[in-house]
Amino acid sequence: MPRLRLALAQIDPTVGDLTGNSSLVHGWTSKAAGAGAHVVAFPEMMLTGYPVEDLVFRRSFVAASKRAVDELAAQLASDGLGDTVVIVGYLDADEVGPRNALAVLHRGTQVATYFKHHLPNYGVFDEDRYFEPGDTLTVIRVGGVDIALTICEDLWQEGGPFAVAALAQVGLVVNINGSPYELNKDDTRLALVARRAAEARSTVAYVNTVGAQDELVFDGDSMVVRPDGSLIARAQQFAEQLMVLDLDLPAAAPVPPVVAGAELRVVNVLISDSVVDSDQPAPAPEIAARVTDEAEIWQALVLGLRDYVRKNGFRGVAIALSGGIDSAVVTAIACDALGPANVVAVSLPSGHSSQHSKDDAEDMARRTGLDYRVEPIQPMVDSFLANMALSGLAVENLQARVRGVIMMAISNQEGPLVLTTGNKSELAVGYSTLYGDSVGAFNPLKDVPKTLVWKLARWRNEEAERRGDVPPIPERSITKPPSAELRPGQLDADSLPDYEVLDAILAGYVDGDLGRDDLVAAGHDPAVVDRTLRMVDLAEYKRRQSAPGTKISIKAFGRDRRLPITNRFSN
Ligand SMILES: Nc1ncnc2c1ncn2[C@@H]1O[C@H](COP(=O)(O)OP(=O)(O)OC[C@H]2O[C@@H]([n+]3cccc(C(=O)O)c3)[C@H](O)[C@@H]2O)[C@@H](O)[C@H]1O
Ligand SMILES: Nc1ncnc2c1ncn2[C@@H]1O[C@H](COP(=O)(O)OP(=O)(O)OP(=O)(O)O)[C@@H](O)[C@H]1O
Ligand SMILES: NC(=O)CC[C@H](N)C(=O)O
Question: Which residues form the signal peptide (predicted)?
Answer without folding.
Answer: none
